[in-house]
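Q: A reviewer asked whether we had any structural model of the full assembly, not just the individual parts. We don't, so I'm hoping you can provide one. Inputs are below.
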Amino acid sequence: MDLDLNVRKDGDHSVLEVAGEIDVYTAPKLREQLIELVSDGSYHIVVDLEKVDFLDSTGLGVLVGGLKRVRNHDGSLQLVCTQEKILKIFRITGLTKVFPIHSSVSEAISSAPAE
Amino acid sequence: MDAVAGVGPATVRLAFPPEPRLLGTVRLVVGIVARKAGMGAEGIEDLKVAVSETCAVAVGDLTRAGRQDPIEIDLVETPDRFGIEVRDRAPTPARDAAGPDQPEVDDRELGLALVGALVDDLKTATLEGGGNRTSFWLRRDPLDPGGLGPHPLDPLEPGGLDVRPPDPDLPPPLT
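A: Here is a predicted structure for the entire assembly that you could use as a starting point for your response.
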């Protein structure tokens, strides 16, 4: 399964919908998308992981890299995820303390600081 | 070779070239074999993450070393546990070498943390002549029914993955 990415604007936020499997093969595509968003001036990003079937450590690294980039611009990167198998990955690695994780895009946007 | 795993005779043995694009296929096959062995959904997901992380390290090491040696995976079913052993022929120094394309985060440390948290009896060792062996087990949920029958998906995909029963002429796994 490949990785599908879709970006849309919602006010001051960019919502990045991710579908498929994020692993060492597909993670570079996600990294490039996050870099492009920040380069284009999107500093408040919501990454929707609801359609992600698999996430590995490479994918986690890409998300952490994205978080560092937006923070360099006083921005935010929030996640949307309710799948237990994906949440488990964040919990094991301690990244639930790093990323705000929400149950819906609207919840993420309402809690994120806007520009 | 060093004795590490003690996982016993393989139920299924896979071999695939060190190409990242094949990791998804490996996960698919591992998931199907584990499902047919009666593993529960959570255990299957844990196994898929653990084997994918282990194989990703091997793929990276072999790629950096310019090697195309196949990565071998033994899947072992016992009445109460499911075991996996991954073997690669990456030169030992590659495991400690800094690659030219360093990630922003140490994916390997995250990966090792994941594998260690998800499985039981994680063991790693260096193989004589170069290479690495990683093995681990996952206990079968006692509530899981034994064997759920055939999966509708065909595990075979074109592109180099070799799925075959263990060769009876091969030496037995090391214990």
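A: Points you may want to mention in the reply: Chain B touches chain A at residues 20-21, 23-24, 27, 42, 45, 48-49, 52-53, 56, 59-60, 103-108, 110-111, 113-114, 117-118 (CB under 8 Å). Residues 1-5, 146-160 of chain B have pLDDT under 50 and may be disordered.
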